[in-house]
Write a structure and sequence with these properties.
Helices cover 8% and strands 43% of the residues. It has helices at 122-141, 296-301, and strands at residues 5-13, 15-16, 26-27, 46-47, 67-68, 75-76, 143-172, 184-207, 212-251, 273-286, 291-294, 307-313.
Amino acid sequence: MGQEREESQGYFEMLWDCDHCDARGLLGKSQRHCANCGAPQNPAKRYFPKEGEQVRVDGHTYEGADRACPACSAPQSARANNCTRCGSVLEGGAEVRGVVDAAAAPAATTAASGPRRRRRIWPVVLGVLVILGGGIWWRCIRSQSAQVAVSGHRWTRTVAIEEFNERREEAWRNEVPVEAGLPICRERQRSTHQVEDGEDCHTERRDKKDGTFEQVKKCKPKYRSEPVMDAWCQFTARRWKPATEVKAAAAGMSPAWPDNLPPGDTPATPGARRQGQRSETLTLEFTGHGSCDVSEPVWRKYSDGQKLAVEVRASSGDVVCGGL
């Protein structure tokens, strides 16, 4: 997706309130001292003006954040060498603290509104998740050691039977096999793609910490989904397809494949049948502790009546199969 772009809309005066009298809304860049009582500006009391009350600073060149005078704390330009209020050398003066735009970050602390405490809910959410996870572990996952006895071996063997016939199928045009009959196709939506459709924009105000703020317009492309059409086709093709399956199952340790199966190399003629995929399931049974479907080495490892130490589920008593 497209990158977010930024566009500066100019520099504007921050405002500040006098600590020593009732003067309010003094200009952060132009009025370094109170116009009412002459007190120096406190940079910690700067704040953003209300919407529509901004005072533009035309031709402003940003030179860096103000520094607080080490002697009297009055804010001074980044390029000044000595304090304009008390004359002290500004070397080592700390950068003044900036203000976060409350419109962009509602929970942030601003000089106008003072510190605001945001209620943290993540500890509550974390606590609920811990309790829920603990309950699931205790009820469903927790296991304990036990001695169990093998009560028997069972096996099931399955062979799929495939049949060769002409079959009607559907697929996208590029997926239709070469040997298929003449396909009948119609247009159909296959997917979607994203098309740029204007921008989503918002404005941010950035305290430059020199008595001004920069207003920045930030825009990100927005997109709409449009359908991608393609040809969906119906066709006939002769294929081997699963038709049924044959199973054999019994107890004991001598599994066997089902009888009376068609050959595996039957010629591909209409209506012909052949053996398909083979699969087997081998099961160990435990007295009073359920059963486990296991691999052949594990299945043959234990004999009927053999006792073994295993982990069982605390809730059900069933053997933890992964530990065999």
